């Protein structure tokens, strides 16, 4: 099939763009355009032109889908008399075109359009219209989808599900779609310090603080330094209108985003961490499991008063309001303040195999819940201060504020309580200021993901072969500079790749957030796809025009803070997905074929790998799963 693309004026029928010839995805569209000899023969199978009245979308947009599944987006340029006021009225450029289209950056490649293994169309919402590849809340195949607008369903959608049912829906009115990820702002009128999701109650636990009337602090008798610290805190509150920052635990419903229950903390107590845990009575496998919410706090009285900590165990219960509305509320079951030898702030909490693991000052303490209180059964001495801790099965990964990471394993003797202990498997002997840690799982391979204060991502692995330290030293496999500090990792299972069956075992990726307000994802890749995309990334670094002429590969190299001791440079075994997307968004199709030949592969194979990568990293695959 062959043809030409013409754009005509509806009033007079005059040709604005004529005889465009082969659709090769040029950066700027004008006439006449003809394909060069040897270019691949692609066809336009679908086309649409729209204009929107709001924002910067008033200029007409031209959307095209090619026969290989590629989606191209174009936006009209300003007329020449507006773009260059020195020109006369009604002037045209040398090509004779009265209108020109410039190619748009659609961001993430759309997944499933034209793919032979997928029969599901994509519902597009914008701007940017390529941000979401399916509507949130729809978990079925969509044979047909169209827009629907009337008084009862304004600006909605009408779709037919796989069971031949007709459904009406509309996008949330308070949700903003102006970014790659849909976003809704929830005003809290307070400062949020931590957030956790409990699957059993389908609700969020938040640690919040807000200015409240000052309260008198509890001081032990005979502690002169604590008494002076309390007097100093009262004086500071008096200078600010007799108000101070008060911390509390809040239970937030994800439907209405209202506060269903709250637990205030003591005066001068600072909330540090919150974690949903599942504990077994007595720590035995046959014991009954109960879900709890564990909160770690600290009492910081000043440099003359040792910091104390407290752990709170809360259980969520169903309650009924006078209007017979079911909602969740919390009940404080256990509270313990750490003093004496185990005195210190509770900086990290994790549940492991029915046990509760706490980071208290310079110690890790493992506890058993006997139904009424916590009983200690194992401990481990940490270097300085634990900033992050995570677990998978009986393995624990902890990050220190200065001494990098330590990889532990919990072992227990089922016949004796004294047989329970935490054993160090390996550690990083270098120095690093760790901010967040998480595990990366790829089938039978377990990797350790770490972020530091310099904005780097590190991936470590336990390898004894060729390691001068044996199996006690963690080997750094890759490093990547983000440009911003990472505050939290969340481990998730990515979406399946269409109808194809993935490799045996469990593969998981890590979603993270940064101090700059960005969201990102780290995911393992198959070795063959990684090598192919790595070569493509090197070719794109030389073929594309970059911001300020800076090399993107050099920018992503590991950096260190000025006061940090030098570390051995890590291999560059992490790919930059933002750079790889530019292969689709910034290159014309003939140039895509040329770059693919330079990389020793084909464009079809690269597009297949990028679409598989887009499935793994797509926003819809991240938000549909419950959080741990």
Structural class of the helix and strand makeup? mainly beta
Number of helices: 8
> What is the quaternary state of this protein?
single chain
Q: What does the main sheet amount to?
A: 5 strands, antiparallel
GO molecular function, one term: nucleic acid binding
Pfam families: CPSF_A
Organism: Cymbomonas tetramitiformis
InterPro entries: RSE1/DDB1/CFT1 (IPR050358), RSE1/DDB1/CPSF1_C (IPR004871), WD40/YVTN_repeat-like_dom_sf (IPR015943)
Question: How do the helices and strands line up, and which of them pair or pack?
Answer:
Elements: E1 7-8, E2 15-17, E3 28-29, E4 44-50, E5 61-66, E6 71-76, H1 80-83, E7 101-103, E8 144-148, E9 156-160, E10 166-170, E11 191-198, E12 203-213, H2 224-239, E13 243-252, E14 259-264, E15 269-280, E16 289-299, E17 308-320, E18 326-338, E19 346-352, E20 355-360, E21 363-369, E22 374-381, E23 386-392, E24 395-400, E25 405-411, E26 421-427, E27 434-442, E28 445-452, E29 456-462, E30 474-481, E31 486-492, E32 509-514, E33 519-522, H3 527-543, H4 552-555, H5 577-585, H6 589-598, H7 603-617, H8 619-623
Antiparallel strand pairs: 1-2, 3-7, 4-5, 5-6, 6-7, 8-9, 9-10, 11-12, 12-13, 13-14, 15-16, 16-17, 17-18, 19-20, 20-21, 21-22, 23-24, 24-25, 25-26, 27-28, 28-29, 29-30, 31-32, 32-33
